[in-house]
């Protein structure tokens, strides 16, 4: 299941009308000073930015502030946007930085780290194994078109603790590389990889409990860690 598609902040069944101008066209017009073009971009991405910020900060008020800050920052820096990346990717990165900045202020951290620098390096040895293993009632392709599925994904995501949720959001939803994710959160790349695995396993477990066929469930068995 494609996490970036499922968690994009758009209705699962929605699609941009073929007659609507592309982002590239609107950006070009906005760079020429057409305010309506940028307003169209803002309307197109406002909900997506809010959803992303809400997931990161866990606060409606902070998410509103992040959305407004990201849109204003994009307008101020649009002339310097070189369009090497998609506009959506660019503005969502702006929102991500703004949301993480709020978390740092909330934690009273002056640097990029969202965890204590003295944290021991995490390893794979204590990564939990799935407790509920079963075939899904429907194929992931069919489930991805279901609003019920999206609700379960959102609920599962909210149940992740912050350090795992942030890794999953940056890497699997926003498409940050392992190196970029580590730099954003002030972690080692090894810790990012371990936390990402844990986040994926937890989400998979919860989704299997929601959509797995009990008749096909395998009994968990003991695992020995090296």
Detail the topology: elements first, then pairings.
Elements: H1 3-6, H2 23-31, H3 35-57, H4 60-77, H5 87-107, H6 140-143, H7 147-159, H8 162-173, H9 178-185, H10 189-211
Helix pairs in contact: 2-3, 3-4, 3-5, 4-5, 7-10, 8-10, 9-10
Q: Total number of β-strand segments?
A: 0
Instruction: Give the tally of structural domains.
Output: 2
Mean pLDDT: 77
Task: Classify the helix fraction into a percent range.
Answer: 55-70%
Percent strand equals under 5%
Q: Might you state the CATH topology name of the largest domain?
A: Arc Repressor Mutant, subunit A
Described by the principal axes of the CA atoms, the overall outline is globular
Radius of gyration: 20 Å
Distance between the termini: 30 Å
How many helical elements? 10
Order of H and E elements: HHHHHHHHHH
Entry keywords:
2 domains, Rna Polymerase Sigma Factor, Chain: A, 10 helices, single chain, globular, mainly alpha, disordered C terminus
How would you briefly describe this protein structure?
60% of the residues lie in helices and 0% in strands. It has 10 helices and no strands.
């Amino acid at each position: 299941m494609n996490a970036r598609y499922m968690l994009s902040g758009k209705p699962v069944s929605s699609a941009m009308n073929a007659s609507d101008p592309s982002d590239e066209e609107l950006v070009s017009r906005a760079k020429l000073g057409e305010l309506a073009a940028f307003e169209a971009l803002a309307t197109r991405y406002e909900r997506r930015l809010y959803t992303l910020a809400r997931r990161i900060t866990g606060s409606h008020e902070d998410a509103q502030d992040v959305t407004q800050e990201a849109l204003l920052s994009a307008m101020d820096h649009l002339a310097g946007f070189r369009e090497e990346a998609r506009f959506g990717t660019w503005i969502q990165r702006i929102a991500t930085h703004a949301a993480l900045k709020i978390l740092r202020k909330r934690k009273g951290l002056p640097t990029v780290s969202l965890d204590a620098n003295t944290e021991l390096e995490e390893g794979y040895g204590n990564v939990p194994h799935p407790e509920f293993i079963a075939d899904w009632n429907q194929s992931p392709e069919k489930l991805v078109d279901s609003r019920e599925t999206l609700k379960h994904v959102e609920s599962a995501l909210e149940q992740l603790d912050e350090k795992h949720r942030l890794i999953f959001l940056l890497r699997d939803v926003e498409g940050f590389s392992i190196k970029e994710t580590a730099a954003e959160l002030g972690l080692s790349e090894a810790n990012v990889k371990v936390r990402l695995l844990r986040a994926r396993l937890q989400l998979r477990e919860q989704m299997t409990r929601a959509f797995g066929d009990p008749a096909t469930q395998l009994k968990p068995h003991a695992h020995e860690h090296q």
